[in-house]
Amino acid sequence: MQTETIGTATLETWTPEEVAKALDAHEVVLIDVRTPQEYMFEHIPGALLMPMAFFDPANLPGQSDKRIVLHCGSGLRSEKMARMAFEAGFDRLAHLGGGFAKWKEARLPYIGTNMASGAPKRVTP
C-alpha cells in the first residue's frame, strides 16, 4: 500500500491483491464509482455501486469497522472521488490503484456477462 498526504488527509492506494485479501477477510467496503452500465457488464464481487455522477461523500458509510476502498476502471475517477470526500471532511480513504483494469490484469475473479444470454457469470481467470 502506498500513502499520500493531502492536506490533513491520507489517501491510501491499494494493490488488487491487497483489496482481494481485505475483501475475503470482510475488512473493507468496496465502492465502485463507475457508471451503472460498466458495473452491470462486469464488476468485482461484493462491490457496491455509487456512480461518480451521483457521488456524495455524505452518503458514504462510516469507517469504524471497515475501511472504505473506492475503485473505478483505471484509478482516476476513484482518486478524484476520494479527494472530493476529503473536501467533505473525510481524513482517510483508500482506492484501488489502476482500478478494475489492474484487478483483471492480476487475474482475480469478477462477475462478467454471458454474452449469449446476457446473464451475469462468475469469471475466474
UniProtKB/TrEMBL annotation:
PROSITE patterns membership: RHODANESE_3
Rhodanese domain: residues covered: 24-112
One Pfam family matching this protein: Rhodanese
Superkingdom of source: Bacteria
CDD domains referenced in this protein's UniProt entry, alphabetically: RHOD (cd00158)
Molecular function as annotated in GO: thiosulfate-cyanide sulfurtransferase activity
Entry-linked PANTHER family: THIOSULFATE SULFURTRANSFERASE RDL2, MITOCHONDRIAL-RELATED, THIOSULFATE SULFURTRANSFERASE_RHODANESE-LIKE DOMAIN-CONTAINING PROTEIN 3
Name this protein carries in UniProt: Rhodanese-like domain-containing protein
Record organism: Thalassococcus profundi
